[in-house]
Design brief:
This protein is an alpha/beta fold. The protein is built from five helices and six strands, in the order βαβαββαβαβα.
């Protein structure tokens, strides 16, 4: 069975509402409809130490999340836009994943080769393309594959305060993009499971 992991990189803990979590949940719902088993983790609920190492010692929660990443076929990074950038927690996730950028499997491929990366972005200003581009490059550098339409996003109008979670209903364009993201990611993950990349 194909497995997906959503790392929600809102700065808010699970006790707070989150637009990033909402959009990630919508992606995971679409994936579930395609038979993908999923888990969603709010990164802010965990002590993810700054640094570029797989394990930074006692109290570091990253090793447990790393195990979840390794067990997943699809990794979804969900982030708000802050000052035109992914959240600091999203950047930290990439930095911790970067500990394995030079690690390879027994066939010489990067550890994350064969896994599919995807992105969900929310914000109240324009910047979703820039944020997704940043995350795409990081995921690709690490060995993740990107399906066509590997991002779904919503941004509100400039200089106003409406959040995605406050909308009366999901805009059709966002719902359609989310559905396409899920379908393409699941399709690519299935292909890579049955036809892996060649040895490096």
């Amino acid at each position: 069975m194909t497995r997906a992991l959503a790392l929600v990189c809102t700065l808010s803990p699970s006790s707070d509402r989150s637009s990033s979590h909402l959009l990630a949940g919508q992606v995971m719902t679409e994936l579930a409809a395609l038979g993908v088993q999923g888990e969603t983790v709010r990164v802010a609920d965990h002590d993810i130490r700054p640094g570029i190492a797989r394990d930074l010692g006692e109290g570091d929660d990253w090793p447990a999340l790393w195990e979840k990443v390794m067990a997943a076929d699809i990794l979804l990074l969900a982030t708000p836009i802050w000052l035109g950038h992914p959240s600091s927690l999203c950047q930290r996730v990439l930095e911790r994943l970067n500990a394995d950028i030079s690690e390879t499997d027994d066939q010489g491929r990067q550890l994350f080769t064969g896994k599919v990366g995807a992105v969900a972005v929310v914000g109240n200003e324009d910047g979703a393309h820039k944020v997704s581009a940043d995350l795409f490059q990081g995921l690709n550098d690490l060995g993740f594959s990107l399906a066509p339409g590997a991002v779904t996003y919503w941004v509100g109008e400039a200089q106003q305060g409406t959040d995605y979670q406050d909308l009366d209903k999901t805009p059709e364009a966002v719902a359609g993009t989310t559905k396409t993201l899920a379908a393409n990611a699941a399709h690519l993950a299935g292909l890579l499971r049955h036809t892996p990349y060649p040895p490096a």
